[in-house]
Amino acid sequence: MNYIEHVGKYFMMLKQVFTKPQRARVFREALSREIEELGHKSLGIVMFISFFIGGVIALQTALNLDNPLIPKTLIGFAAKRSIILEFAPTFCSIILAGKVGSYITSSIGTMRVTEQIDALEVMGINSLNYLVLPKIIATVFFYPFLIILGMVLGIFGGWIAGNLSGLFTGVDYIEGLQTDFDPFLIQYAIIKTLVFSFLIATVPSYHGYYVKGGSIGVGKASTQAVVWTTVLIVIANYLLTQMLLT
Amino acid sequence: MIEVKNLCKGFNGVEVLKGISTKFEAGKTNLIIGQSGSGKTVFLKSLIGLHIPEQGTIEFNGKISTDLSLDEKRQLRQEIGMVFQGSALFDSQTVEENITFPLKMFTKQPKSEMLERANTVLKRVDLENSNKKLITELSGGMQKRVAIARAIVMNPKYLFCDEPNSGLDPQTAIVIDNLIQEITEEFQITTVINTHDMNSVMEIGEKIIFLKDGRKAWEGSNKEIFKTDNEAIVNFVYSSNLFKKVREAYLNETK
Q1: What would the CATH number be for the domain defined by B2-227?
Q2: Distance CA B219, CA A55 (A)
Q3: Is the pTM of this model over 0.90?
């Protein structure tokens, strides 16, 4: 199957996904389950990585700015821009594509190979709507909060790293954070996160839903899903940056 | 009643079903038998709409399923119960959650009524007190019984079973066969079973269709199967010495 066929099949899948849920109560139950699985259970990894990467960004910037003519406030300024613009929305989304993407593909793929999806269809249930729509809603609504939390922890990690290493003071760092602060940067990060969240939910769902073969097929589909989600996030990142910041 | 006319289906240019026509009557257990690769599963999946036929029609009480829109097909499927070969139960849910799932999707019953209905069907398949067990905690036979309970919870008009006895010991297989036959008679369901199991053929085959190379090679009842001289089905059904002897004994008795 060539790429154009996959793209066509993906959009045909979305057409089935975006229909009215057959039963609101069942949809609400599925949504709360997905928020728990895809959102709440990703909090730990995003918090941990954001905190330490924020610290590393601040340390690397401090170590490279050794010219006494450059003010130390630039460290906070550079760390803020890197974390808000790229690290939190893009890097965290790529991490989530790995963690959540493989979960989505393997869970839907296993349902496919064990005929659970056929069972849903035979019952008269729109299986794509039932399985995929709650995942899209859960990621698109929850991930912006997760990314904002990543931003806050990343910046906090930078502050802690400065205090522990003695490379810059907390006062300089905070002054740098406040310098030339543009609220649009946050909007830009959230817009990117919304697009990435949609990709994180739908691309792995596509790979899981149309999986062929048994357990090896599910394994291969999980790998492909993570690779393609990452590729599409990187391409979308470039296009959104071009559109929103230039 | 289900009426199939000239059903054809293929994959990647290979014909699997080659013009099958037959009728399945309500209140009867209809069996589809045949060698592996003869097209039984494709036939069953075409009947329930998981495969789209290339030619021919399938009528459910006069409604041609192949002409229905996707929404109308989903409506029709609410009248269908299906027991899959591997049970296809939702393995992350409990027995009770599996059985009440179709009720949650398609009825507005309060929870207490759903649980009552779940208890009734679980009792019908001799699985009382298993409501809270996870599917992974059940044996193969118990899983099959839960699958039957889920299939009948919506009072279906049509019941399809894909090799309901596969992987079960002979005793449990007979229990499952009898259960399906009793349910079929009790609720006057049109039941279609896809099987390899010769005990099922002899015990509950009120109507048997034998498929060979994607074609209907023979049709009749379990009584007629002893008398037939159709070479294809005689070679298939009486391939074991035990069944050959049973047939000889039957023919000697009825001479």
Answers
A1: 3.40.50.300
A2: 76
A3: no
Tokens at A120, concatenated: 């849903």
Report whether B65 contacts B58 (CB < 8 A).
Answer: yes
Please give, rounded to a whole number of angstroms, the shortest distance from the CA of B41 to a CA of chain A. Answer: 13
Strand-pair category, B158-162 with B190-194: parallel
* Residues 151-190 (A) with a CB less than 8 A from some CB of B: none
Which token pair is A9? 């099949």
Each of the 255 residues of chain B gets a pLDDT tens digit; together they read 899 999 999 998 899 999 999 999 988 899 999 988 899 999 999 999 889 999 999 999 888 888 888 788 888 888 999 999 888 999 989 999 999 999 999 888 899 999 999 999 998 888 888 889 999 999 988 998 999 999 999 989 999 999 888 878 888 888 888 888 988 988 899 999 998 888 888 888 889 999 999 999 999 988 888 788 888 888 888 777 777 787 778 778 777
- Per DSSP, the three-state class of B29 is strand
B84, A126: Cβ pair inside 8 Å?
no
Interface confidence, given as ipTM, is 0.85
Q: Chain B contact for A22, CB < 8 A? A: yes
